[in-house]
Every structure is written in structure tokens, then in C-alpha cells.
Amino acid sequence: PADGRSDVWSCGVILYELLTGVSPFMGDSPAVVMHKVLQSQPDAPSRLVPSLPEAFDAVVARALGKKPEDRFPSAREF
Question: Partner of 62 at 20 to 30 A CA spacing, among 14, 28, 43, 44?
């Protein structure tokens, strides 16, 4: 069941895009994008923008956790 952690994931996607200028999950079709969402981890933001502090990498990675229990428990924690 969906809960507030799905919103944390969505905010993680937006933060990734704000930091890097690109989507964390890109593909040629909706099916490819969905596969990436479910199966792959995006590059760390600091890999795409070396001037970013690496601390953002951990925050974004946790927000984009595949399992809800791997994400921040709330927006306040995020």
C-alpha cells in the first residue's frame, strides 16, 4: 500500500533533477523508464555534477530507495 514514503520518492526524483538537470530514470519508452525505476539505481548526483557535495548522494539514494522501508520515513526526516 502507498503511504507518505511514495511522496518522499517523488521528491527524491525532483531533487535529483534540480541538482543534475536530468531525470534519474530516462528511456526511449514508458516501459524502459518503468523498468529502470524498478530495477536500476541512477548515477550519483555528484558523478554528473562534480561540484556537488557528496552528501547529496546519500540523501538522494535514500529518498529513491526501491523498498519503502529503505526511504526516509517522512518528509520531515527527508
Answer: 28
